[in-house]
Amino acid sequence: MAENLWIPSVSDERIPSASDEAVDWLVPRLQGDLLFPGEPAYERELDGFNVIARHRPSLIVAAVTAGDVRAAVEFAARLDMPIGVQATGHGIAAPARGGVLVSTRRMNSVAVDPIARIARVEAGAQWHQVVASAGFHGLAPLNGSSPLVGVVGYTLGGGLGPLGRLYGYAADHVTRIEIVTADGVLRTVSATEHGDLFWALRGGKGSFGIVTALEFELVPVRRLYGGGLYFPGELAPEVLRTWRAWTLDLPEAMTSSLALLRLPDVPAVPEFLRGRLAVHVRIAFAGSEEHGERLVRPLRAIGPALVDSVRDMPYTEVAEIHEDPTEPMPYHERNIVLRDLDPVAVEEILALAGPGADCADLMVELRQLGGALSRPADVPNAVGNRDGAFTLSTLSPPGAPGQVVRAMAPRGTGRRYLNFLAGPDTAEAAAECFDAPTYARLARVKAGYDPRNLFRVGHTVVPGK
Description:
With 465 residues, this protein is α+β, with helices and mostly antiparallel strands. The protein has 13 helices and 17 strands. A hairpin with a 4-residue loop joins strand 5 (110-113) and strand 6 (118-122). Helix 8 (236-246) packs antiparallel against helix 11 (343-353). Residues 1-14 have low confidence and may be disordered.
């Protein structure tokens, strides 16, 4: 969707650099490439999905091994330089200005053990790789809605996907993490090794080091009754009211969401959605086709849909449920977690984003929580918001103020969901994603493993006592 949308310009204005002597120390320790401002390869390496902002590091380590990551971290620590990581660039927040950026996109191997139902992925793997590999064995990961999102960043931020109400957050199913911490040590972290760090990483995201590999459980899901119902904008009031009432009595095997879409009139957008208000109801039911059809019947009865793609499908086609964009685009992503979604809240959302509303957001989305998402993980972790009923999130073009989220904030729990935050105005929002005791514990873990706050590019937990 990048065509005809604003894309920020970049320049090479006085980026702080490392000395030649320091670089000479780093070069022989790398198997991957070392890239500097002014080089075409440097610019290509910075390309990411969300172009609302762009990193401008002093140098990029294009890592191909965990050893490359160790060398990059040790280099940054020697010079007391900030260090960050980028795989796909979906969740960019505070862009690096100087320092070291580790690009992990080449570290993208995926291995599935179908007997143990475990997947092991490297730092740059994307969800479409895991879905395909697991699906060959009749298994599924707890992936996100987009097949192009990086597995590691998504999972460390919690991971709220199409199987969430049945199986919980992706972070709840992580069994092992390999991470380079600020001292340059590659650590294996699990429930029995560095348990405090294992707790923090699963939900606290990337503030504690650079993850080089992740292992997690797969679930025995071969097929879904899933897809999307697209309705014309004039039906938005009836669709939202019906969907809200419908969510009150659903089995946990049904995970759904609703989005009010105002997409631009550009070729990258399907023609039936261009330049108009439309409503997209997303369905993911991990049950039989017959049961799913009965459950969805009240939604289909609302009126004629623009498109009805809900059907029995192999799990490997799960990306067709949300139909997330695949072309880079600039956007702010903001959100709050709602305590509930009563009829008054529905009318408030319609007034802000329904037909006739002066709404600048490309998307206003509601995702139902509850079910397994409300229960603690078997091995406790830092994922918050288990008391929420829905997430309310928006995608907004550059310059849009995020009025829907601000107006609905009084109905929220006071917290946000970490994975649904992107753009420079969200850089300081990590503390808003956790209750006070959880954030205080995260700050203590941060102080133990990164007391100098080297990992401060992005949504950062500040070291504390």
